[in-house]
Amino acid sequence: MTIQHRTVDIEAAAKLWRDDLSASQIAKRFGVSRNVIVGLAFRNRGLFPWRGDAGKKTRAPVPAKTARPRKRAPELKREPEIPATAYDAERLQSAKLLHHLTAGKCCWPLNTGGPYLFCAAETTGRYCRNHQARA
Questions:
Q1: pTM here?
Q2: Taking a C-beta distance cutoff of 8 angstroms, is the pair 18, 49 a contact?
Q3: Helix (H, G, I), strand (E, B) or coil at 36
Q4: Mean pLDDT throughout 79-103?
């Protein structure tokens, strides 16, 4: 399948453009689509001067709306900290960092701040029995 291109005289199209003919009117004279003329104008900006917003419809000015006061966001309540227990103190000796945990290890955080350490006790779920009861 071959595509046949029609030739458009760029100088003549530019003169018609400067005479304020629309891209559609110029396209009809050359027997091409409007998009061909718009593409020529885009690629040859020196020959086709910018017309600005002359062809666009203008809207009537609308009075500015006054800003209404915004509602304040509700205060976020901090989650109560779960106090450590003797079990947590025992587990702290064998605690692991998060990236060292594997499947089947308890992922209950044992400390606050610093490098977080996790329980890492053997379990079949997300937490060991002790931490599951606390959750």
A1: 0.40
A2: yes
A3: helix
A4: 82
